[in-house]
Amino acid sequence: MKKILYSLAGLCLLFMQIEAKADGDQKIKFGKISMEEMTSTVCPIDSNAYAYYIFNKGQTDFRYAESTIRSDDVSSSQKGFQLFFNRHFRIKILRKEGFDYGDFSIPLYVDGGDKEKLIGFKAYTYTLENGKIEKTKLDNKDADIEETSEHVNTLKFAMPNLKEGCIIEVEYEIVSDFLFNLQEWYFQKSIPVMHSEYLVDIPEYFNYNQSQKGYFPINTETDRRQNKFTITYIQKDEGMLDGYKYTKDYDFTEYRYNYSADEIPAFPNEKFLHTAENYLTKVEFELAYTKFPNSPMHSYTTTWENIDEKLNESYNFGRELNKTNHLSDAVAQLKSTGTTDVSLMGDALRYMQLNMNWNGSRGYYTSSSVPKAFKDGEGNVADINLNLVILLRELGFNAYPLILSTQDHGVILLGRPSLTRFNYVIAYVQVDDHYFLLDATDPNSFINLIPVRCLNDQGRIIGNTPEKWINLHSFQPYASKSYAVMQVDSSLNVRGKIKKRLAGYAAYSFKTDARKANSLDEFIETMEDKESKHTISDMEVPPIDSMGMNVQYSYSLEANDLVMDAGELIYFNTGIDPFFDENPFKLDERGFPVEFDYPISLQQSFSITLPPNLEISELPQTTTFQLPNSGGTFTYQCKSMAGILLINSAISIRKDIFLPTEYQELKQFIQAIIEKQNEMVVLKSI
What we know:
This protein is mainly beta.
């Protein structure tokens, strides 16, 4: 992490005033905070908001970098058009819960020695002190730049002197030589936005595909106007001291796009959504082609085949797969065991999991060479999984890299080929008519049980295969089966033993949590604290490394609040270990899908012995609930036999994505399950 050093003599002119270029655009002056803004105590469109944007304004325009060109300049050092992006915003912090909105990140794109530059930046916090508006400036030393990925350095800072009722104001400008990186604009945020506006001026030489996403409407106005830039040329011939000087004006048409929206609600923080990135209201730009005078058109659009070719020829991807000698000992060791087929595939996965540690870095390019990463025993996701592909190939499998976008990175748009939409690579193996997915970065993953972060839409195979796109929706469910033998004693306490068997992503999740603990004893203690609202003890959990694909564990349970003595009748709440403590779906309506990571299969079978002085007066009815379109089923049965209650229930949610039109049925389905599992068995004394 590097401290940002700004020099008044350098390109980064800290705290400079950034003037608006847009004709007719009324610029809000920096620092002109009204008393009405300062004394506001509630968001005008959301009384529950901790904070809100008073406004969020952005502008991108193109400026020609060179005003003077000399004939003896090196042509490669000459710059043409550059992108200038300006952003200015104010945030009102209403309560201390909104202090997190005082932390900011500004990404700056980097490619080799070229990088985007921050040429204007100022940030203040305004507070009301004794009826007077006071301001606190962000100090230089409180802003840091860190390298967050191969192509992004991020400026991070936290605003000073945050108090309830304060206002944050930030303005900055970025200059970029990366013409493909025309800034996207988010109109919707995690807090309400009273006004958002984005102005973009594009010269006729550039054509960008523009797309709007999200559910909130955006106002769009377009216009065109004439503009020009002037260049002074200095022609120096041999023997000339000053050279011949002349100027030339270049006229061009500029297309203006003004996007705006008002009173934009906060994006709701609901569960079961892979990433808000797929649904936030925003506008995006993708450079399609450039066409300059007296020059041919240069296309920037690509095809999936071009992407395959680029990766196959890359020294940090396809060519790395030809390096095999460093794995010769591993191949000999694995072959000597005599295992074959899927068992050998699993052994190869386990070998790589044990011999390489993931450093947490994502991407599809190796950080160094695969032999070096293997020797070091550590690397990024490509270092590890390309080594896995090589190992599988050397063992005789048809293995290929499969690139994907993780859940938090958003989905791949098949109609818009782009390599930057990917950020991860795993191994794909084809065996006859079946295929298998493997990821060695996670010690808890297994064949077709890849990390949850990878369960996102589709991935692309890089190799000579008939099928190129593979569905990454889960191959395995989250499966849990519970068995309980309980007794109700004479004091009306409920106690007994519960055994659970976990498979698929239930086992994966359990093992992931177990490995986070410092020891198995610490994990068991944590589980006993959170497993149930009742008293949990004597938990038996196998050693983590012996768990395998399935996990079985057990514990003792004691509850003294499930049975209520109401005099003549006694009520027994059968919700000993309910599937849901509360309904996770809170919104009356949902404007985006519900995304489960995997199908869900939950089963319970309880046997509860009643004391001999009680008999059953009334039982909950046997019930089956169905979701439309075979989306899911809930079954519940409660019966008695010789003084024993037998309760069997099961949930099966077969779909992993429910559309907004299916939200109400899903919400009601979950609520019906909660109510059913809390129904009472009515008992009476004999």
